[in-house]
Amino acid sequence: MTIVPVALGARSYDVMIEAGLLARAGDVLAPLSRGRPMPIVADANVAPHLQRLRSSLDAAGIQSETIIIPAGEKSKSWATLESLTDRLLELGVERGDHVIALGGGVIGDLVGFATAILKRGCGFVQIPTTLLSQVDSSVGGKTGINARAGKNLIGAFHQPKVVLIDPRVLDTLPVRELRAGYAEVVKYGLIDDADFFSWCEEHGAALLAGDAEARTYAIAHSVRAKARIVGEDEFETTGRRALLNLGHTFGHALEAEAGFSDRLLHGEAVAAGCALAFGFSAAHGLCPMQDAVRVAAHWQAVGLPNGLAAAGITASAEQLVEHMRHDKKASGGQIPFLLARGIGQTYLDKQVSLEDVRSFLAIQPR
Ligand code: GLY
Fold first, then answer.
1. Digit-coded pLDDT (tens) for 117-149
2. Together in a domain, 265 and 238
3. Within this chain, do residues 52 and 159 fall inside the same structural domain, yes or no?
4. Residue 193 is part of a domain; what is its CATH number?
5. pLDDT tens figures, 284-297
6. Domain end residue (candidates: 124, 148, 172)
7. Is residue 221 annotated as a catalytic residue, yes or no?
8. Same domain, residue pair 113 and 239
């Protein structure tokens, strides 16, 4: 088993990674349960994993009621949060108890937030079942729901007590979702680890095709990177954690243009957004053009969109910039952009002119 510590003082916890871990979850969670029940929150998509988790908890003598939430982003709502917290209260969840979030980012974000506010904070365990949630959203304590005005606008930092990652659950994940999650893996190489980007160039296709060793290696490497960055800037105040938003400002505009729908998954938008961030950096002489070309070539090699055309976005530059103005990271009319001096050399630039962004987007192929 690989254990990655997330060092956050009193809020520290471990991320445990092992193929087949779901079937051993009961043994691992027994000390946390201390004889108390551990409710499971899941969606209908994870039925086979739920079965395995329940058997494992049963075998370890841990009682577990299951609460099923409708699959999809719509569940990150006040209405679902209300019914979930009501149900957890009915089940008698106490402050020292732990609720298990079994699923992708939606379940993790929702359960994280519900447990952040239930009785002013109780414990939760993340068991992420998508590549995206395994390498990003389950680690670091960002939790929340969506508001009418935008995604993730209501939430709290609330760290899980432990994260259990079983790479085998990815065997049943639709390949498009797997690929979208892979974009967030590559992102760690682009941020500050050029060697890992080279590893992705060499092994990315095998990982997507099902190579178990490559998957476990990439997950562990990504979780270590995330744990390091979150450990340096838990509450995103120094700019360090903001590096994790590489590709997200351009990507957010594309997602908004696609109506935050299945037309363009979050990870696909992040891939295209990273390509645009590197393209913009190269166009402004900040980064070698060959690095921007490498990024775009890797996305193409693994079937991820590497620009507006590949993402199916035909909107004008003006429309895209307008979406950026509504980005939640905007502050005082200025939008912070993650730019690059090269692969593995990303930095935060708060002075980027939106007129420069508009001109750059205007000449991108559609
Ligand atoms: N997914 C970005 C972060 O956790 O900060």
1. 999 999 999 999 999 999 999 999 999 999 998
2. yes
3. yes
4. 1.20.1090.10
5. 999 999 999 999 99
6. 172
7. no
8. no
CB 227 within 8 A of CB 4: yes
Check: CB of residue 313 under 8 Å from CB of residue 259. Answer: no
Residues 163, 128: contact at Cβ < 8 Å? yes
pLDDT bin (cut points 50, 70, 90) of residue 334 is confident
45 is catalytic: no
Buried b (16+ CB within 10 A) or exposed e, 172-205: ebeeebbbbbbbbbbbbbbbbbeebbebbbebbb
Task: Give the separation between CA 85 and CA 163, rounded to whole angstroms.
Answer: 21
> Which helix (DSSP H) or strand (DSSP E) does residue 230 occupy?
helix 212-232
Set 245, 255, 257, 294: catalytic member:
245
For residue 187, pLDDT over 80 is answered with yes
Rounded percentage of the chain residues whose pLDDT exceeds 90? 95
Of the pLDDT bands very low, low, confident and very high (cuts 50, 70, 90), residue 53 is: very high
Name the DSSP letter for residue 78.
H
Q: How many helices (H) and strands (E) does the chain have?
A: 13, 11
- Grade residue 253 by pLDDT with cuts at 50, 70 and 90: very high
> How far apart are alpha carbons 121 and 152 in whole angstroms?
19
Q: What φ, ψ does residue 165 adopt, rounded to 5°?
A: -115, 120
Q: What's the predicted TM-score (pTM) here?
A: 0.96
**Domains identified in the chain, total number:** 2
Q: Which whole-number Å values give the CA distances from 337 to 72, 247, 340, 361, in the listed order?
A: 28, 9, 10, 14
Atom of ligand 1 nearest to the CA of 236: 5
- Across 240-257, average pLDDT: 95
Choice among 248, 257, 294, 298 that is catalytic: 248
Query: What is the enclosing helix (H) or strand (E) of 53?
Result: helix 47-59
The whole-number pLDDT of residue 331 equals 78
Domain boundary among 149, 172, 195: 172
Shared domain for 332 and 237, answered yes or no, is yes
Residue 269 confidence (pLDDT) above 90: yes
Q: Whose CA is nearest to atom 2 of ligand 1?
A: 244
Let me know whether 195 and 278 are in one domain.
yes
> In which domain, by residue range, is 257 found?
175-362
Across the chain, mean pLDDT equals 96
